[in-house]
Specification:
The complex is a heterodimer. Chain A is mainly alpha-helical. Chain A has three helices and two strands, in the order αββαα. Chain A has one domain. Chain A has helices spanning 6-21, 43-52, 55-74, and strands spanning 28-31, 38-41. Chain A is globular, with a radius of gyration of 12 Å. Chain B is α/β, with parallel strands linked by helices. Chain B has two domains: 3-211, Rossmann fold (3-Layer(aba) Sandwich), CATH 3.40.50.1460; 215-277, no CATH class. Chain B is globular and about 55 Å long. Classes of the chains: A mainly alpha, B alpha/beta. At the A-B interface, strand 1, strand 2 and helix 3 of A face helix 5 and helix 6 of B.
């Protein structure tokens, strides 16, 4: 099930991809909710998960939304 | 009843990416000892089910903080084998619990409370962090990981300082926010400042807290988290997961104070109008 409407999803994807291209995205340590495996997600892995629309990709988008909200709160 | 002066801290080391957590909880152990707490520090290879259960039975600590990988219904130890799982949490009854673990706030936390735990804090998301130098060393020496682990630890630091549980939870949230402020206001030019903010906010919002509200009387029902429980044979058992009844109870909890405020405001305004006339 999609978490965001298409416009918001597109905006969040663009923001993530922009940081990825700028080299401002970091690898994260987490687990894959679908397999339960502990793993590292490189910036490229994160972009791929988002593009594939996996559960983890949705979570990456949700974390991007939280980042956006925190920045907006402080502007 | 558990010993109110005893605290147990469990910190595996050899599981995947567990080095940071091992050292992070080491800071909590040191701080608790400096404040005079009687600490059982179960670390690295010792952090397996049999040993943990033996130590709990022997020391009977009122307070229990553990780090380790988790899922909705399971927390694992140093060998990545189960330590606690849904339906097997009786040993945590009457204790205050904090799990720095992924997802345990979804079902394992409610199960602990249903089985008599005093209070539980944990996460209903995959607790996620970033580092500058990998996951093997002390995160307090790592530019990015320090804020993540220091924020998570703050809840237990507050418990050590004899704060009430809900105060400790608030201090934890405040610490996450303080670190977000640090990256936003003090270091916005850092190339990974936004990544730090992103995961601090994610972990902060994933913090779940549950408090035991009373004894189990056969036939009664109650919400723990989003699940509806019923009391059967003096034990709380899940009646319905993600129950709409539990969502409603939250709505009512919000709606009643709002209605009260609106009502008071209305009465106050009416009174003022009468005086004006």
């Amino acid at each position: 099930m999609k978490t965001f409407n298409p416009d918001t999803e597109q905006l969040l994807k663009q923001r993530m991809e922009q940081r990825y291209v700028q080299g401002r995205m970091k690898e994260v340590y987490s687990i894959d909710p679908e397999t339960g495996q502990y793993r590292k997600y490189t910036p490229q892995d994160q972009i791929i998960e988002v593009q594939r629309g996996t559960q983890k990709g949705e979570e990456f988008l949700l974390s991007e939304k939280k980042l956006m909200d925190e920045l907006n709160k402080r502007l | 009843m558990p010993n109110q002066n005893k605290m147990m801290i469990v910190r595996p080391k050899n599981c995947h990416y567990c080095g940071n957590g091992f050292y992070a909880l080491g800071h909590v152990v040191d701080y608790a000892r400096s404040r005079g707490w009687d600490i059982t520090d179960i670390q690295a290879e010792q952090a397996v089910k049999e040993n943990i259960y033996n130590e709990i039975q022997q020391d009977d600590p009122a307070y229990y903080y553990s780090f380790g990988h988790g899922s909705s219904c399971v927390q694992v130890g140093d060998t990545e084998q189960e330590v606690f799982s849904c339906g097997n949490t009786d040993i945590l009854a009457n204790r205050t619990i904090y799990f720095l673990s992924c997802l345990c706030g979804i079902s394992l936390g409610p199960d602990i409370i249903a089985n008599g735990g005093n209070a539980f804090a944990g996460y209903d998301v995959e607790w996620t962090w970033i580092t500058e130098d990998g996951t093997d060393d002390d995160p307090y020496n790592d530019r990015y990981a320090k804020g993540m682990y220091e924020s998570a630890n703050e809840l237990w630091v507050a418990i050590i300082e004899n704060n009430m549980f809900q105060e400790a939870v608030q201090r934890c949230v405040d610490k996450y926010n303080k670190w977000i402020d640090y990256w936003f206001y003090d270091n916005p030019e850092d190339e990974y400042s936004q990544e730090a903010i992103r995961w601090l906010a994610w972990n902060r919002d994933g913090l779940v807290t549950l408090i035991n509200e009373g004894p189990c009387t056969n036939g009664s029902t109650r919400c723990i988290g989003s699940n509806l429980y019923t009391c059967e044979n003096e034990e709380w058992v899940v009646l319905e997961e993600n129950s709409s009844q539990c969502q409603r109870s939250l709505s009512i909890a919000v709606a009643i104070p709002v209605l009260l405020i609106v009502g008071i405001a209305f009465i106050a305004m009416t009174g003022k109008l009468k005086k004006t006339k």
